[in-house]
């Protein structure tokens, strides 16, 4: 395990959450973040973002790991027109108290997967509505809703985890420094109020994230008592609901109720999980088996151009997609006419990653220099070169990260190989995170030579301090 080093100086730490009304200064101007409700945009809204980025920014747009969008290159003169244009499109800031503009994260497959156990979108929308009135809520607060089936987000760093465990039943868990701590299981309809109560209690602690709470502080957060819908105690003792009991419906009754609601559209065969291994990636277009084919593509290192978004909107419309669903893998998901799916995927290949074995899927990268004021290396260009050299490792399921500084904005967690830029060189951290102490410092050329000449999958043997 790599030794931990000191965090960057306070002005450069992660934590700033820009919006449209309060953009963030960075290397290429102001960065304005857009928070589409539930991570879904209409085709008209996508076109509005593209036009706004072209008119009021530098034409570059980021897709973030929380399924939001960022317009880059905004100026003091254009920030007002940008916010006005996107507010008119229904994408304006919703909070002005410093709280989270978007509180929840769901899988882009929610509403498309017939194997889902709950209505993830409806649940998230209700949590958003209740959470809007909770203050002072830290800007980075996140509630992840996993609806079951293929609608999972195993890698999301949430404060509160809501996970379907059976039809109509959800487990609520709190973030810790390790695995989430489960509080119990509730009926689907009770979850928003439970989450709102937890959020209100968390807001009063003054902590930045739930994982920062002590065990005693976390234990003091108030879930409802067993008489108010809890199906399992905080201690973990199962209390299986019986048909006809207070506060619970039988599994079959819940199933019949959800099945008869008609809420979820069919999911075609061949869908991928939200965060696949690099060797799996997005599938080929679904081959029938439902009313819609689903295709998933990723933006190279999360970056697209305004023109690429306009082309995406055109392809989506021609393929019959009703909307654009942003993905935590920094891409998009489209539900299309299965007969048009192959053609749509082929047309998107010029702007997005479509091949399952593309090694860029295995490499995360932040904007770097010159786009980010904290970066000293051209991370996107270097990451593209690393991805090609890393191809044999990616095929084995290994991952890498090229970070412009120790903040690790693109991926704060451990990767099999992390390169951390500083002063034009990279600190090499095998099996570590951007904040870990590097084994050695190399130029990008030297690092690439090591990877290209590798005869082993043990990256720690490639990079280690020489005596």
Structure report:
- Strands 1-2-5-4-12 form a 5-stranded antiparallel beta sheet.
- It contains 12 helices and 19 strands.
- The two termini are 19 Å apart.
- Residues 1-14, 225-230 and 232-290 have low confidence and may be disordered.
- Helix content is 25%, strand content 20%.
- It has 467 residues and is an alpha+beta fold.
- The longest helix is centred in the first third of the chain and has 14 residues, at 43-56.
- The radius of gyration is 22 Å and the shape is globular.
Largest sheet: 5 strands, antiparallel
Shape: globular
Q: CA-to-CA gap between the ends?
A: 19 Å
Helix content: 10-25%
Quick structural overview:
The chain has 467 residues and is of the alpha+beta class. It has helices spanning 43-56, 79-88, 120-131, 191-203, 215-219, 251-261, 306-319, 341-348, 379-389, 391-395, 444-452, 459-462, and strands spanning 24-26, 29-34, 40-42, 60-63, 69-74, 104-106, 143-146, 160-166, 169-174, 181-187, 293-298, 303-305, 323-327, 331-336, 363-365, 400-403, 415-422, 425-432, 440-442.
Give a topology summary.
Elements: E1 24-26, E2 29-34, E3 40-42, H1 43-56, E4 60-63, E5 69-74, H2 79-88, E6 104-106, H3 120-131, E7 143-146, E8 160-166, E9 169-174, E10 181-187, H4 191-203, H5 215-219, H6 251-261, E11 293-298, E12 303-305, H7 306-319, E13 323-327, E14 331-336, H8 341-348, E15 363-365, H9 379-389, H10 391-395, E16 400-403, E17 415-422, E18 425-432, E19 440-442, H11 444-452, H12 459-462
Helix pairs in contact: 1-2, 1-7, 3-4, 7-8, 9-11
